[in-house]
Fold each of these.
Amino acid sequence: MFEKIKECIESYNTIIIHRHKNPDGDALGSQIGLKNILRANYPEKRILCVGESSTRFGFMDDSVMDDVSDKDYEDALAIILDTSAKALISDDRYTLAHMTARLDHHIFCEKIAEVEVTDTSFESCCGLITAMAVECGWELTPIAAKSLYTGMVTDSGRFRYDSTTSKTFMLASHLLDESFDIGDIYRNLYVDDFSFIKLRAQFVLKIQFTDNAKVAYIYTTYEEAQKYGVDSFTLSRGMVNVMGEIRGVEIWVNFTETDDGVLCELRSSVHNINPIAKKYGGGGHAKASGATLADKNAAMQMLNDLIKITEESV
């Protein structure tokens, strides 16, 4: 499965790794993991990473991005990770590269690169990259293994989501052979500043329910968002799962007004909500997707579409 992308990697002396905007643990983990794998197995090559920084996952080793100039893209291979659509890529200079490739585990939305490996059977992009390392016979490093394991943990919901398979645990076991500190990962994932805990409590109080009580949602206006004093990623993806463990709720969605539109984070424990995300220009996974809408009217239309899913399944 990875023959063509391996050939690309071996054909270029400069490789620049991209991932999606507002990086989560899987985006950063796959980026850091691939960077360290390639540096260890191809020490003669320049392996660089680009994208904005992450506050939430800043604890990850080697998470500071490289200083990359436009000139670096000349005769370079750009690899895009964990991204289903062009609009989501952090740093659009990948278009300057001589060759492009993509590794992704999301439901296919559009072709992004000249060489693509997409496989939705993986719980995370980190799992996909781990499989590539195994197939290609590449050696791991402790930092690479720890980063990839972090992404697998976060994108599988700590191995709770139904995307988790026996393959997930087999690949995780392979990573654990590198003897990194697994406790350090969980200490950082399960600890929050008191200010974040208070914010989460405020969002719990904002939860609303549709008439059939099967869809929960939160709507944050632009004015409210400014008062919280945190970034939009924290308000949108960071808060969506405060609704995730309410008995009887089958779908939950978090709407956040920003300068770029209304960010929508959709989740479900039962239904495939990806078609709704794609209908509104977004994408993702069957039970975890996102989109950006023009205004509140569009958000309410999306909410009605989500209600219909729960009604049609009765």
Note: The radius of gyration is 20 Å.
Amino acid sequence: MIRFGPSGNSEKFYEDGHKSSVEAPLWLNTMGLRAYEYSFSLGQFLSDEKCKIMYDEAQKYDIKISAHAPYYINFCNTTEQSKENNKKFLLNSAHCVKLMGGNHVVFHTGAQMKMTREEALNNVERNLKDFLEIFESNAEYDGVLLCPETMGKYSQVGNPTEVYHICTYSKRLVPTLDFGHINCLMQGGLKTKQDYKDILQQGIDILGPERMQNFHIHFAKIKFNEKGEIAHQTLSDVDVGPNFEPMIEALIEMGLEPDIISESKGTQAIDAKKMNDYYTKIIDF
């Protein structure tokens, strides 16, 4: 079963009178949604007590939790301060998501800055492998998967091929395919079911079908220019791509069941429900 849910709390969540994320599992359950991504994007982490409340609520209402690690992570950067920040942000994210009962932590690999692409990728490999030695040797994080995300700007490390290759470093790494970002890199070229299948098949070819059963998806329509991503939109923005229907059809035909997190601007829960309803209609047909 594919689970759908929002990244963070949408505008309607607050319009309905809710104030705290611990209220999200019940609210999402009433909408027929089964996933929720907690964002630590600005480096603000939850207390253990609040994480345990989230765990109880998620278990009660059958909501699968994931987390997005802070945006400040950059494995391209070789400074000791950057390495320490990467360690702190990812380990804190893994600690919280496990307490909440989840097992996926999404992170951005980093920015190329003034390096060549080869230099940036070499730094990512070296720095990430050093971090993995710490992460994998600590039983506290057993069961947690780290999920490098495909990015939407050419200046960022993280096209699909790069993300798949990065995931070969460890079985604890699985990809987050952000198809809105990928469409930006393709300059609007992500259109058909076969386009989605080609990207998914590349992951299967590189990582194997078993590894691709655990991968993660972000989805939003996103405006772009010649440099890549500009801004997230909603599914109602008909002039912006990509469309989610061929993605869902491709996943069903390939037998893949990732969690799909909506990152629409302000309407992420409503748009997650739109995708969920389309998926349910197909599998029940």
Note: The chain has a mean pLDDT of 97.
Amino acid sequence: MKKGVFLTFEGIDGSGKTTQLHLLAQRLLKMGQLCCETREPTNGPVGSVVNQILQKRLIVDERVTATLFAGDRLDHLLNEYNGICKKINAGVHVISDRYYLSSYAYNSAEAPLEWVMQLNEQAAQILKPTAHIFVDVSPEVAVKRILANRQETELYETMEQLTAIRKRFFHIFDLVKDKENVIIVNGDLLPEQVAEEIWSKVRHFFE
């Protein structure tokens, strides 16, 4: 049986990556492809704790947050009931809203980047994405979208944080350019235009 394709969507908060993930998944389903959407942090036992941290209901050291993200990711991959690896091996395409590049960019704010990358090395060895799709928008646009769509902001959703995170993403892309397939698209365009740009760059994975 042919394995499924594994794509991840990355971007700063408010980039529109979740919208683009939905649009791509809908396109694949209409084509008759088996496709599953998922996200990190998950709603699993570890991911639920991470979500409480992001919602500022729990306050822990950044190293604890990074470790919990890595643990949630391994469960996301290896869970016997609904893990990504099980789906990929069954021929299902999986599209994830965030994966380890997000941990590199977000968790390295206060923890050493090399340590964060080592923390996620198991996940990278178990399953490397066919491609990481980075939806790039300016922090100004991202903050406007966040404030327009939510009553409360999460842990990293400030102009200062998003500016620094976007900068770290591009630093990381340079570090991993020989190991990871990163596709950067302009998220400032209309959603339909962004979706077409993404499709033009990933369609060959599904042929």
Note: The mean pLDDT is 93.
